[in-house]
Amino acid sequence: MLEIIHRDHRNINQLLRILRKKIKLLENDEKIDYRLVKVIINYLKNYSDKYHHPMEDLIYAYYLKYRVVPDEVAIRLSQEHKLIKEVTIELDELVDMILLDAIVPKEQCLEKLAVFVELQAAHLMYEESQVLPAIKASLSADDWVNLEQQWQHSHYDDPLFGDNISEEYKALAERINQG
Ligand SMILES: [Fe+2]
Ligand SMILES: [Fe+2]
Predict the structure, then answer these.
(1) For residue 162, what is the DSSP state?
(2) Rounded to two decimals, what is the model's pTM?
(3) 25 with 130: CB under 8 angstroms?
(4) What residue segments make up the domains of the chain, in order of their start?
(5) Domain 2-178 is classified in which CATH homologous superfamily?
């Protein structure tokens, strides 16, 4: 399970890198392909919020219940997943408007995108640098067996980074491969 979480984080980081490049382009007054931004948001909404975060939530809930963990860690983890979900929906709505040719000030779009990327990146860093190492150090093999049994989600093929890339994500996969 921890391996899956780390792998997802590496994948999400690749997407954030592309979004950062888009922000740079916008800052330089250049045009960006909003359809690609939309596809990235879709992926994060569908895969991250429906699979990655639920798996983390399960592990974190177990960790918080059975180990002594400072309050601020527990509060921060639950707040951040909620906040990320909200900010993702807001950005998604804004990009939809742009794709429908609504007039959206560039600054507004830039700000929303930047907030989104920074929030995702900071959350990922926090998990990778503090939460996951602490969990790894404190949970035993038995704990992991327990957690695997509790994970009720059916197997979910990653539609972008998995073996079978779905039609929707083909262009994005190519973009990722370009580095
Ligand atoms: Fe998370
Ligand atoms: Fe995560």
Answers:
(1) S
(2) 0.91
(3) no
(4) 2-178
(5) nmb1532 protein domain like (1.20.120.520)
